[in-house]
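REVIEWER CHECKLIST
Item 1: Sequence provided? yes
Item 2: Single chain? yes
Item 3: Sequence as submitted:
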Amino acid sequence: MGRRPVLPGSPPACPRPWEAFSCPRYRETIVVNVTVPEVSAEEAAGLVSSSGARTAKVKVSGRRDRRSADLERLEAVRSAIGRSGKVRIDVNGAWDVDTARENLPQMDRAAGGLEYVEQPCATVYDLADLRRAVDVPIAADESIRLSAHPLEVVHRRAADVAILKIAPLGGVHRALDMAERLGLPAVVSSALDTSVGIMAGATLAFSLPTLSHACGLGTVRLLSQDVAEPSVVPHDGVLRVDAGAPVSERLLDEVKAGPLPHQALADSPAAPGRRPALPPSARGPRPEPGRGRAAAVGPRWARAGAHEL
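Item 4: Structure as written out by the authors:
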């Protein structure tokens, strides 16, 4: 496939990401899942139907008082995706082993069969114990990206699938190295990234010699606003990427973080020259990283459990 031609007077085409990272490309498209946050059963079915995806990743609360809602959501997703579709759940480490052993059979039945359960327990030791006790395959996420010893997942035979996220693992090349060292079937996923982050994830997915599961790279639509025009989004559950994400200066300006309260006062005409030393009570709360106007990039579904993918 040749490069996109550059017309006179037009900006150069974005470099193709696998070339920028000097990575091989083993496939032309990436099959992706639809992510279903903790929403009502009706909303869950609508998300699955409108996505066209054949795999759904369903967030479950992990709480006993919400288990009925989790089961209803899974039943609705199975109904929407059909018998041939695949359903996986993500627990974000919320269960202990006993709770997982109690919940998993119920959720497996409600889902009409689970492809796998992602990070059902917090520790690799609990994952290993659970894997020996249940038939549902186990996928490790936090036990890889947040661990000082990610290979313990393999040494303790704690997982069947490895979830790989570019940013926490340190970039494309380090993620490729981790995939090789783990030696497990891999699922490349995002952490509520904009199209820029999705492009990095896609580069990893293109570069893995084997990719037998749908990837979690269809999350841009969960954002209230992106920074690229057009956004890097899948169509009918398939992501096709021919060039880098065209970042929009206009969109970047709309979502960039504003100044801190004491910075705004120091830069005002009433305070020329040296910035005044304000007492803490006059400064106001310091915004969290990535807040301010950048909150426009925040997840539309944060209220519904999509904050941790």
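Item 5: Key structural point noted by reviewer: Strands lie at 29-31, 34-36, 55-59, 86-90, 117-118, 138-140, 161-165, 186-189, 238-240.
Item 6: Recommendation: ____
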